[in-house]
Amino acid sequence: MSNNISREELFYQFQSASNLMRRYLYRAKGGPGEEGFEHGQSRLMRLLEREGGLSQKELAEKMRIRPASLSELLKKLESKGYVLRLRNEKDKRVYNYWLSDRGKEVAAQIEESKRTYGRAVFDGLENEEAETLYMLLKKITLSLEQSVYEGAK
After folding, report:
1. Environment class of residue 70 by beta-carbon count within 10 Å: exposed (0-12), middle (13-18) or buried (19+)?
2. Which ranges of 66-100 does DSSP label H, i.e. alpha helix?
3. What are phi and psi of 98, to 5 degrees?
């Protein structure tokens, strides 16, 4: 392998892998998202599974999305019976969100499918390669987060 790989070539390869992974997941699930979930919905469910009882403002901050976008996600999940909205005991103007029992079951299924897809996608790597890839992706993610979130301030 050449030591002179351009950043453009590297970006192209990374983008190609990302697109192929998205296609693989789409085909493996038979359609977009688990049980018709959009990406943001499954992300929100995973967050509520880890940290139930957050307000809409807290959820928007943790997900780094606009409150209006979050509101739409919450409405869809509430209508499916996966999310409960309960008035905050201390501040009656605020609602807190929790996964319903049905939502907890679906969240567990989502996590299991992520494990299954993760094994299928990365089984071709040796342990050392997987560790190196993890560290490189983490470094790229941190750099992007600084550019996207801190650069927007």
Report:
1. buried
2. 67-79
3. -135, 155
In b/e form, how buried is each residue of 74-85, taking b as 16+ CB within 10 angstroms?
bebbeebebbbe
**What are the structure tokens assigned to 46, written together?**
């995973």
Residue 79 has pLDDT above 80, yes or no: yes
Show Cβ contacts of residue 14 under 8 Å, excluding neighbours closer than 6 positions: none
Percent of the chain predicted with pLDDT > 90: 54
Q: Which of 21, 8, 84 is nearest to 53 (CA)?
A: 84
Q: Is 55 helix (H, G, I), strand (E, B) or coil?
A: strand
CA–CA gap between residue 68 and residue 60 (Å, rounded):
9
Q: What value does the mean pLDDT take over residues 62-82?
A: 93
Matching residue, tokens 């650069």: 151
Residue type, 17: A
Tokens of 132: 């190196």
How many whole angstroms separate alpha carbon 41 and alpha carbon 69? Answer: 11
Instruction: Give the strand pairing for 83-87 and 95-99.
Output: antiparallel
Mean pLDDT of 105-118: 86
